[in-house]
Amino acid sequence: RDLRMRLFIHEDDLKAMYDESPVWLRGLMDAWANGLNYFLATHPEVEPRVIDRFEPWMALSFSEGSIGGDIERVRVSDVESFYGERQPVMAAVPEDDGYLEPTGSNGFAIAPSNTKNGHALLLINPHTSFYFRAELHVKSNEGLNAYGAVTWGQFFVYQGFNERAGWMHTSSRADNIDEYLLDVVQRGGDWYYRFDGEERPLLARDVSIRVLEEDGSFSTRTFTTYRSHQGPVIREQDGHWVAFKIMEEPLKALQQSYLRTKAQSFEDYVETMRLHTNSSNNTVYADADGTIAYFHSNHIPIKDPSYDWTKPVDGTTSATDWKGVHTVEESILIVNPPNGWIQNTNNWPFSAAGEFSPKKDDYPAYMSQNPENARGINAVRVLDGVTDFTMESLRAAAYDPTMTAFETLLPPLFAAWDELPDGDSLKEGTREQIAELGGWNMDWGVDSVPTSVAIFWATEFLSGSQGERTPRSRVEALDVASRKLEQDFGTWRTPWGDINRFQRLTGDIVQPFDDDEPSIPVGFASSRWGSLAAYGQRTFNNTRKIYGTRGNSFVAVVEFGDRVNAIAITAGGQSGDPNSPHFIDQAEHYARGNLRPVYFHAEDIQSAAEEAYAPGRR
């Protein structure tokens, strides 16, 4: 992973960018480093894992707040295979359970015409790892007054709002990452690649990385990395070296990430979007002027549409080079649609505004690779036709319990069960479960038995290969799921809340879980099933109950009136210290989908404050 990162990010380059950055940005980077170093100096009990002194240029190494930036599209195994002889010792990661979460986020914007108070509303609902972002209010005497989710170690609000405008990012699948097949040749110890009939030298760069050895010691390994004008070489395929091209402009990206938090109008926000560096995200937007908008990605290269950009393309010709970037107006953009609402759930943009959505045929195929998803179908359902939204009713819409995926999954199960002959032991053994599912409204809930049966069944059935999914196998999966419930909980008639739990025992980033320790029932479920409120969960270390680790993390509903007003919740609590009263004080509200008031205005903060802090006080 370190080598993958160093293919794109180099210390000397970032130091040069820091020197070239505008004075105001250098001031922010200086303050960022000074604050971190001050904390370490005054808290000797805190032992840094790697960095024991921060330098201002380091802020440029992580310039946007996504859980996984563009470089994570590069497989570590490919990099190891191309550059290394063996794989270094790496931290353990959970095994692949066949469905990886988080798979997205939800953003809703409601126009004044569709709200009771005539004010625009915004739902901010990122689906990410718990504790990956903190809920913060950042204010200065130079015009900054932003509130929302801040990713570890960054000085800008990633998803949030200020007194005039709000922004919610959802992951984009615009095709703005490409692979190029290079024809390479070695001459005199140097490597060259063919391009437009000539040979160009590959940029060779030695990268030294500290490696954790099997005996626990550290050593330094040096790798020679290669780069064409398209990007770094990441792997080999069919005799070709493969170069990987992404947006690589950290200086502009950090400026955009910060400047958007100070936008006071739609026009201000569009100006920040003209930097075109928010490459991995879509944006759902709302403001106090009543404008709502949707921006699909923010970095879409202009490419020859005759090529299939879903596969590696010919890297020997300038015909496949990017020809600049599509403007904001050329990209998929929705502003104030007549229906009065916008939604995105990491689905395609062609249902973002109902019948007033963009048309797929109007854009190059590479502009949007996302399909529709079950959450998107549900989002349209809960938003369409409602003209009296309030903060509370928008919150309720965000926690709508319908799991739309089962509208497609269950009918074939019922048909397969009906086709079994009477007297078949499989049919008789699942008759009561089928009756439960047949009478179910497909809503999740802590007291719902059908939710337990449906999720255990669908998880079992979909774990098999496509070719194994015969009609009978659908019913067999129901039998297996029922036996699993009986084995773990004593009966297949186990309410969902007895299985699906929230637990926070330590301040660790990767939490331990224990069935014998206190936990809280949670009604909502994985976004896989179309649940708008997402709760990604599984068993850990032989637990029977399943525990959430990702999904709804920070949730906020914002109203932009004469004064901004908001409600919000954070998974567990604001503090990572188990001894703090704010370590798990939000857990009950979180599990029930209740949001608490946000204290944004000075008088509200003063009336609710438990303690005030000034630098140097502790």
* Approximate strand percentage: 15-25%
Specify the number of helices: 16
In whole angstroms, the N-to-C terminal distance is 36 Å
Low-confidence stretches: 86-99
Largest sheet: 7 strands, antiparallel
Helix content: 25-40%
**What characteristic shape results from the CA principal axes?**
globular
Descriptive key words:
about 625 residues; seven-stranded antiparallel beta sheet; about 25% strand; 16 helices; single chain; globular; 27 strands
Structure description:
This protein is of the alpha+beta class. The protein has a domain at 405-492. It contains 16 helices and 27 strands. The strands form six sheets. A seven-stranded antiparallel beta sheet has the order 4-5-6-7-16-17-19, with no helix packed on it. The protein has a six-stranded antiparallel beta sheet with strand order 20-1-2-25-26-27. Strands 3, 21, 22, 23 and 24 form a five-stranded mixed beta sheet that branches. Helix 9 packs across helix 13 and helix 12 packs across helix 13 (471-489). It starts with a helix and ends in a 10-residue tail after the last helix.
